[in-house]
Write a structure and sequence with these properties.
The complex is a heterodimer of chains A (252) and B (306). Chain A is mainly beta and 252 residues long. Chain A has two domains: 3-93, Elongation Factor Tu (Ef-tu), domain 3 (Beta Barrel); 105-210, Nucleotide-binding domain of ferredoxin-NADP reductase (FNR) module (Rossmann fold, 3-Layer(aba) Sandwich). Chain A is built from five helices and 15 strands. In chain A, the strands form three sheets. Chain A has a seven-stranded mixed β-sheet with strand order 10-9-8-7-11-12-15, sandwiched between helices. In chain A, strands 1-2-5-4-3-6 form a six-stranded antiparallel β-barrel. The two termini of chain A are 34 Å apart. The mean pLDDT of chain A is 96. Chain B has 306 residues and is α/β, with parallel strands linked by helices. Chain B has one domain (6-54, 73-194, 216-305): TIM Barrel. Chain B is built from twelve helices and 16 strands. Chain B has helices spanning 28-31, 78-90, 105-115, 137-140, 143-157, 172-181, 220-233, 247-256, 266-269, 273-284, 290-293, 296-305; strands spanning 6-8, 11-13, 17-19, 41-43, 60-63, 66-69, 95-100, 122-126, 161-164, 186-189, 193-196, 198-199, 204-205, 211-215, 238-241, 260-263. In chain B, strands 3-4-7-8-9-10-15-16 form an eight-stranded parallel beta barrel, surrounded by six helices. In chain B, strands 5-6-14-11 form a four-stranded antiparallel β-sheet, with no helix packed on it. In chain B, helix 3 (105-115) links the parallel strand 7 (95-100) and strand 8 (122-126). The radius of gyration of chain B is 18 Å and the shape is globular. Classes of the chains: A mainly beta (252), B alpha/beta (306). The interface between A and B is medium-sized, with 29 and 34 residues.
Chain lengths: 252, 306
Amino acid sequence: MVKDIVGEIVFNKKVGNNIYILSLEAEDVGEIYPGQFAMLRIENGYDPFLRRPMSLFKKIGNKYYFLYQVVGRGTEILSRKREGEEISILLPLGNSFPKLKERENVLIVGGGVGIAPLNFLVNFYKDQVNFYTFIGFSSFVLEEVYVDFKNYSREFVISSEDSSLGYKGKILDFIPENLDNFEKIISCGPSKMLEILMKKVKDKEKVYLSLEERMGCGFGICLSCAVRGKNRLLHVCKDGPVFCGTEVVFNE
Amino acid sequence: MSKVQVKVGSLTFKNPILLASGTCGNGKEINKFYDINILGGFVTKSITINPREGNPNPRIWESYAGILNSIGLENAGLDKFLEEEIPFLEKLNTNVIVSIAGEKKEEYYEIARVLRECKISGIEINLSCPNVEGGGMLFGIDSEMVKEITKNVVNIVDKPVWVKLTPQAKDIIGVAKAVRSAGGEAVVVFNTFLGLAIDWKKREPVFKRIFAGYSGPAIKPIVLRYVWELYEENILPIVGCGGIVNFTDVLEYIFAGASLVQIGSANFRDPWIGEKIVKEVQNYFKEEKVVDLIGIAHKNHEEVDK
């Protein structure tokens, strides 16, 4: 059941170049599944007008965490919000990652703030699933951005394009050659990264991608977030944001 | 009679609050948030004869206190609409206005022929979509074309017909008169304003089609001005639509001369906005009737003059 709740900012901390972690304390809406997202209303007034879509990074009881990057006016205003200020949150929205089996071998590939829903996933299963995590950033981020991956993964690899963190380069240069041993491959990040990843995987059925697209509403009425699917047009907010590798097409 | 009930042409509305086409899906989507039967009515997403995929991304872009959209009439087409939406719509206990669109005149008539058999309240002719190659807004800026299409749809469909006008028409009064002479029962004022955004990082237009439709609170004063002018001319009942985000906006529209209002973009940021505004309308109109206050600002203004 989708709810509109008011969250009070616990902290809104800069954790990298243009990257922030926002922690909000609000009513507990109950179970949220990994991959689901929220629409945040940054101002109570009418400017900016639309909410901003954000995947949940983590939830602990009545504390909701979001990882975001400043990309435009809305997120810029958000980055200036301070402790105690209120933000309206519409959630939970969209579908979720597939249910993972105990001891399953899962490859996690994340790029930039696209790691947010993956972090939620890893936190959800913790030690019950064998995660092999490969995440990359363009530049330095604080450890709290990736600490959960580090704690709950069998293997953890991090890279940065400017060599300020882990290996130097894009994360796809460091993922295992042989992807056959993984029962599932779960990824979120820049669309170019997802596209290249998909080319490396033979069995597209075991891939699950969380897509990002510009959204107006988040619940299927404005039809802004259309992406081309194999057989039909898909809308990221209501058909996704998680899609199986067999559903998506990358050639626009 | 309820204090908030309004009659427009041959239709009765339990209250003056409707949701605008393209901002409430086909009802089902908003019905997940609240019982849409509490509304005066709503207008479905425009349907076309054939399915349409709509425009390439981006399709939406923010501007100050408003949005530009270029969806391009994405819809599943008439057959899917009849199969998947009509059974739900026919069971509702509120006014369901079906919006129809086309690139050619004949497409409007073909849809009207089919909808004649459906149990719906009426038709809203979309002669104002700015985001398609042919038809839409190009029909709506031309009074003669508006008259011809409206007249034919009225004759075919045998149900109340409204026309959603475009602010891009040079002679709004003339277009409204064309709707009246063609037998339309109301004018919906307005669809979106043609606007432009430049992506300064890329140094190119944001939208592939360059121009897009601007809506949201930023346009409200301009739409209100036209509602005022149309009311002065006393042509047809006015359905006000443009930038309504709260209850007092509704009052402004009614006092300026709108018999009904449609809430558009605001549904995107608050899916419960329709329900909230209906409750506030019921609360406000405890003693007075909505119908007695339509256009009241004109009368009050004259009294000040004297």
